[in-house]
# Entry
Amino acid sequence: MKREIKFRAWTGVNMKSNEELRSIGGFALIEGLSGKDLFVLPFPKYEIMQYIGLKDRNGVEIYEADIIKCKFNSEEAVGFIEYYDDRFVCNWITKTNFNDSLRARIDYIKVIGNIYENKELLK
# Structure
């Protein structure tokens, strides 16, 4: 199954979606996995986040730097998504026994913010 490649960017003021990135000047084009699609990456003044290819229980796309909440049985945990060791993982900031993949818990995960706009959720 081919994973959809999308990006978003934090400008320091607001979040820009994949569609908005395509309409702003000063960007570099990169070729997608298919060899046909072109994707736009802003210059390093923005924080770039990639779509991880999964959606939360409400159908919201999950990106790097998203803060997620996972409630499974009686256990609840909060963490943020990062790219680590060649894969996307959740860095849990609350104690949890969740040690399996994000995909295994996707029906219990909800995006509640991101590390740029909602830092208070990391406390």
Remarks:
- Helices lie at 18-23.
- The CA atoms of residues 1 and 91 lie 26 Å apart.
- The domain at 7-122 is CATH 2.30.30.290 (SH3 type barrels.).
- The chain has a mean pLDDT of 81.
